[in-house]
Amino acid sequence: MSKWLNVKNLLAVRLDNIGDVVMTGPALRAIKENLPETKITMLLSPGGASAAPLLPWIDEVIAWKSLWQDLGDLPFDPARELELVEKLREHAFDGAIIFTSFSQDPHVPGYVCYLAGIPLRAGESKEFGGSVLTHELKSVPDNVHQVERNLRLIESLGFKVRDRSLKIFIDEEASLSAHEKLGSMGIRVDEGYVVIHPGASASARRYPVDRFAVIAQELTRKGIHVVVTGSDRERLLVEEIANAAPEVKTLVGVTSLSEYAAVLKMAKAVICNNTLPMHLSDALRVPVVVLFSGTDEESAWGPRDTRALLMRKPTPCHPCYLFKCPIGQPCLDIPAHEVSKAVLRIIS
């Protein structure tokens, strides 16, 4: 029998964005189904930690801004890194599973886990890392879906997977609160509404906001209620749409992630970029129209479990994996009226 099936105190590592954490859900669920008494602690980025309430298989969270995922914001501070080692050592984990994307390497977090005294360490890698990992799985092609990448890793450790679909859970309090917030905006849930989310963490993945505004105008003219959402840092994008389409309602920075998921769950459809609402819609089985830029492979990140229309113009630079596009985003040069038609098709 695999040593992993005797683990009682497991560390799962996914130091990335919220959507990446959501996509670990099927793997975490499978681990919990195989080992219901095992405690699962997740090492997450401060932003990614907000996804934990949606994933009931997580028992504890350690939030940490990691040096190996940093884009240059952290100062030179070796003592801080030793603090993480000590923090993990105090938990006395007997196994660590390091979830990564196709472009990330598990050996640095694996070495941290080694120094913390964690005897079993697993990850998927394209690179040679010596004996940093006790279980190293050879990487699959880059276009394999991230959920499958995660599941393949745990299956190699001996865990059986019953359900490969993406799911999240919203508690009743968050659902009621979301309903009340929509009501205070004058949105009647029983009349239906469409959500437009114009933001994305990378500018290369953002469909032009002026075209989102045209979509909002076209939908409201057809009598469809539209709610435009965003985080605090996306407020200007939301305001630009609202100024151009005054009949829309806006929801910016006033919901928890669970409440926001509840808002999406009650929607007739969601329109967004390749970003968090796409993954949440997939997990909630809400129809979604995605302006999916050429930065990434649709097969690796796109929805699998809901009705979805992914829109992108073919370009020779796809996939570019860039955060900023140097040539004006030709992959997202899609007329707004084509997107509006797609929305009408998907909600009919």
UniProtKB/TrEMBL annotation:
<protein>
    <submittedName>
        <fullName>Glycosyl transferase family 9</fullName>
    </submittedName>
</protein>
<dbReference type="GO" id="GO:0008713">
    <property type="term" value="F:ADP-heptose-lipopolysaccharide heptosyltransferase activity"/>
</dbReference>
<dbReference type="InterPro" id="IPR002201">
    <property type="entry name" value="Glyco_trans_9"/>
</dbReference>
<dbReference type="InterPro" id="IPR051199">
    <property type="entry name" value="LPS_LOS_Heptosyltrfase"/>
</dbReference>
<dbReference type="GO" id="GO:0005829">
    <property type="term" value="C:cytosol"/>
</dbReference>
<dbReference type="Pfam" id="PF01075">
    <property type="entry name" value="Glyco_transf_9"/>
</dbReference>
<dbReference type="GO" id="GO:0009244">
    <property type="term" value="P:lipopolysaccharide core region biosynthetic process"/>
</dbReference>
<keyword id="KW-0328">Glycosyltransferase</keyword>
<keyword id="KW-0808">Transferase</keyword>
